[in-house]
Design brief:
- The chain has 6 helices and 4 strands; from the N terminus they run αααββββααα.
- By secondary structure, it is α+β, with helices and mostly antiparallel strands.
- It has one domain.
- A 4-stranded antiparallel sheet has the order 1-2-3-4.
- Strand 1 and strand 2 form a beta hairpin.
- Helix 3 packs across helix 5.
- The relative contact order is 0.18.
- The chain binds zinc ion.
- The site of zinc ion has 8 residues, from helix 4 and helix 5.
Length: 144
Amino acid sequence: MSNVAMLTTPHEEVRDRLPYRPGISKLAYAEITKALLMSMEVHESVVHKQGVEEKFRLKVWNTDKMNVEFVDVLIQKHPTCSCKEFQDRLIAGKRYLACPQIYYVFLMVLGQDVNNSMHIHQDKIAANIVHDMLTQAKRASKST
Ligand SMILES: [Zn+2]
């Protein structure tokens, strides 16, 4: 039994050393709330490098559902999004806060947990965690 546990958690030691924040900021919760209220879905996803980098093209509807735009979320060591909010944040040097689209991919597509998957609140994610998310996370099945 203990052998099995050792085999399935090879990266535990690495994770323990990461300087994760102890809590989730109010700003992060605001972005998560937006992510859950916005109408969006994955239009397509493209694996750039297996277990390292994957692009999710999201179809995002505006509030009156009249207009649609496509936004690209790139899940990798430094997750990025092509939306204006995130791009403005990059310019301002505030990339530490994920945007609603990035949270959507983490929470609704890759099945991460707001409170337990603390890496989703970081601007830099350890390579082994990115790998686990992209290859082992239980992905949400497409809703109709
Ligand atoms: Zn975004």
